[in-house]
Write a structure and sequence with these properties.
CATH class: Mainly Beta
Organism: Chitinophaga pinensis (strain ATCC 43595 / DSM 2588 / LMG 13176 / NBRC 15968 / NCIMB 11800 / UQM 2034)
Shape: globular
Strand content: over 45%
Protein name: GLPGLI family protein
Number of strands: 14
Radius of gyration: 21 Å
Pfam family, one: PNGase_F-II_N
Distance between the termini: 79 Å
Length: 228
C-alpha cells in the first residue's frame, strides 16, 4: 500500500510540473477585455436631442489573439442589450473597423473595411502620429498581476487618453483597437469616448491562420482608400 501511495504522489507531482511548464509559454494566447463605450460623450450636437433614448454607457467584451508578434483584435460592431424590458441596439462605427490584424515586427496593421463589397483589407503603417503627444509618467499599477506603466496620449480628436501598458508579456504591442503604442501591450485605457480593461488572459495554442490577415481579401493602401 505504501508503494502505491508513493507512486500516486510521484505521478501527481510530475503532472503538476508538466502543467506549470506549459503555462509558462506566454508567446501565444488570448487576452479578454471589458470594453465600455461612453455613448452620450460620443454624440454629435445634432444627436443630443435623442440622448434620453440612448443609455449613457454600453459595456461589452473585446478580444485580442496573438501568436509571436502577430495579432488579431476584434469587438462586436453591433451590440444588443435588453434591460427592464427595453431593447437597445447600438451599431459601433469606428474609423478603422472592429476587426484588425497587426504584424508588430514589420510595423503593419490591417483593418477589415466591410463597407466595401466585397470587403477589403486596408493596410497602414504602425508609425508614430506626429499630431499625438506622449507624456510618460512614473506611476504604475497592477492589472492581472502584471505591472503596468502609465502614460498620457494627447490627441486632437479624443483629447487626453490615459494608457496602462505592460512590458512583462512577449507581445511588444497591442490592444483591442489594434495598436495604440509601441511601448508594450495595453491592458487598460481611459478616454472620453471609450475605455477598456483586461479581465483575463489564456495562454493557449493559437493557430497561425487566426492571427494573419485573410488571404482571400484584397489589400488596399490607406492612400488608395482616401483617394476614392
Amino acid at each position: 500500500m505504501y508503494n502505491i501511495i508513493r507512486i500516486l504522489v510521484l505521478a501527481t507531482g510530475i503532472s503538476g510540473i508538466c502543467y506549470q511548464g506549459y503555462a509558462q509559454d506566454k508567446t501565444q494566447g488570448q487576452i479578454h477585455y471589458e470594453l465600455t463605450f461612453n455613448l452620450h460623450a460620443s454624440m454629435k450636437p445634432d444627436q443630443l436631442q435623442y440622448k434620453d433614448l440612448v443609455p449613457e454607457t454600453l459595456v461589452d467584451k473585446a478580444e485580442l489573439i496573438y501568436k509571436g508578434q502577430h495579432l488579431k483584435s476584434f469587438f462586436p460592431d453591433e451590440i444588443n442589450k435588453e434591460e427592464d424590458g427595453h431593447k437597445t441596439s447600438i451599431r459601433v462605427a469606428t474609423e478603422e473597423g472592429s476587426e484588425r490584424y497587426a504584424d508588430i515586427d514589420s510595423k503593419k496593421l490591417w483593418w477589415v473595411d466591410r463597407k466595401k463589397n466585397p470587403p477589403v483589407l486596408v493596410e497602414k503603417e504602425l508609425a508614430v502620429n506626429e499630431e499625438e503627444k506622449v507624456q510618460e509618467t512614473a506611476e504604475t499599477r497592477k492589472i492581472l498581476d502584471y505591472t503596468c506603466k502609465k502614460l498620457f496620449l494627447k490627441t486632437k480628436k479624443n483629447g487626453t487618453v490615459t494608457i496602462w501598458y505592460t512590458t512583462e508579456l512577449p507581445l511588444k504591442a497591442g490592444s483591442p483597437f489594434g495598436s495604440i503604442t509601441d511601448k508594450g501591450v495595453v491592458l487598460a485605457m481611459e478616454s472620453k469616448r471609450a475605455s477598456f480593461k483586461a479581465i483575463g488572459i489564456d495562454f493557449t495554442i493559437v493557430d497561425e491562420k487566426e492571427v494573419m490577415p485573410p488571404a482571400d481579401m484584397k489589400i488596399v493602401k490607406t492612400q488608395e482608400e482616401s483617394a476614392k
